[in-house]
Automatic annotation (TrEMBL):
InterPro entries: Phage/GTA_portal, Portal_HK97. It holds the Pfam family Phage_portal. It comes from Sagittula marina. This is HK97 family phage portal protein.
Amino acid sequence: MVFDFLRRSGPRDVASAVPEVKASATGRVVAHMSGGRVAWSPRDTVSLTRQAFAGNPVGFRAVKLIAESAAALPLVLQDQTARYAEHPILKLVTAPNPGQGRAELFEALYGQLLLSGDGYVEAVAGEQGLPYELHVLRSDRMSVVPGPDGWPVAYVYEVAGRKHRFNVTGPVSPVLHVKTFHPQDDHYGLSPLQAAAQAVDVHNSASRWSKGLLDNAARPSGAIVWKGADGQGHLTTEQYDRLTAEMEAHHQGARNAGRPMLLEGGLDWKPMGFSPSDMEFQKTKEAAAREIAVAFGVPPMLLGIQGEATYANYAEAHRAFYRQTVLPLASKVAQQVGRWLSDFVGEDVELRPDLDQVPALAAERDAVWNRVASADFLTVAEKRAALGLPALDADADLGGD
């Protein structure tokens, strides 16, 4: 469905406003390479997601842990003078569409950002002011169309050969594009899955090897040696075929694990022990799992990876996970969503995670509050600014506690 995103009015009439024309000095150089054409993503997001998320337990858990933790963070909306308990932007973010709440919407957005390096949010246009609904779009279906100056002029969403073009040349874009840093791409972000792709292949190969070992009775392979009555060492074709059929039918597979082998006619079983490379296979798998966790910024201890003792305890690892991974991601996304939505209503407001309600940072936050509260040389306004709180009215600042 095509929506007219440009016919809006509100506190600031964005439809009639003439945006100031600005251009980067390097924009025309970028446009020379891709101006007016779809800038195709240099990766196969679908295959990478299938192998590293749907087909790998470490990648799956890392993405889910980050996305769910970041989406569960409470959000606050404030400007330079006040923190809002009720606001149209808060209402829209809390109930973005009939099928999702705030946590579900942001979990989908964080998930797309982690899997592909790009996240897209569509605004369903309202009659005026804020949009009616917000929807997260699949990143693998979206393409960027750069303009003459190198900046996007449209986004193309394609499903089963059908395309919808979002024009973003108006005062407010109907699509928000959040992307991670990519040093070699001007239009798309870099996914952690790309950095961990080789580790994912190693981990998946190790899992298939373990599955193959399990299918063969979970024991090392061996050799059946036949010695004929006259010292002959060769089986006839009929004998070989019968022996192979007996082995496949009665001694291979998980259901035949531990079943005794009955040998006759000079046959002897010679078991083979694990080779040194076989013994190192499990360590290789664990090392690959740690590399996947590192690529996503998740302490391996939180994923249940054995042998990881970087942090003294689980609480320390949990705190580092929030401080180094969850909060930077959530702050970046919330800031961009808040700035985008504030353009619809014409207000300068900021959407940010409420750090005071993060249990993992409770001890750290208490130490900051006590240190700031005991600083007698700071005024009330300076203390509030140090804690990230909006300033009070001028007559309420008495210059002390």
